[in-house]
Amino acid sequence: GAVVSQHPSWVICKSGTSVKIECRSLDFQATTMFWYRQFPKQSLMLMATSNEGSKATYEQGVEKDKFLINHASLTLSTLTVTSAHPEDSSFYICSATRDYSYEQYFGPGTRLTVT
Amino acid sequence: GQQVMQIPQYQHVQEGEDFTTYCNSSTTLSNIQWYKQRPGGHPVFLIQLVKSGEVKKQKRLTFQFGEAKKNSSLHITATQTTDVGTYFCGVYNQGGKLIFGQGTELSVKP
Asked: Staple A30 to which of A15, A48, A96, B92, CB 3.0 to 4.6 Å?
């Protein structure tokens, strides 16, 4: 149990376009979902925390108008990168927790390349 | 905010050699977690340590939490090529957010 999926697994888009990434908890209801960004050879940096039915909480330095997060249900959170630029190219990973457990279950990640 | 320093950044070993990565904090930690990320993959939870001086083992992996709960280590005995990846420690801050260390990338030469 505790499987998290992400879609798409990779995406290439042109500069100025928007990209939506979905994160789903497949076999459990996620009380909280997190979005991370990881650049090559670097650690995971938390971007935002998302709770179902409420606004996401963004980390300092993360533009909420650029990275739109919607947590419509207990099994789905989406991250939309608006007006993407090459510097937004990165590996985006979501994670989810259930029943206020300490363990985070990570999705397989989405590799975004902006040309 | 909560920060943990993880060293070394890279470790290259011959298959069969041991490997250790360390995480240190300037403040007392309530708990610490360890994750493994294979190349091209996503982090996978390994373990959580909570108690002062706690030692846990998973086959060839030994996890320790310092007596002062300010440091932790992950030790792999007799590394294998399947151990390749980046190992991260993670701690929850007061806001309930998981903050990762910088990670230690392990490469194993057959």
From this structure: A96
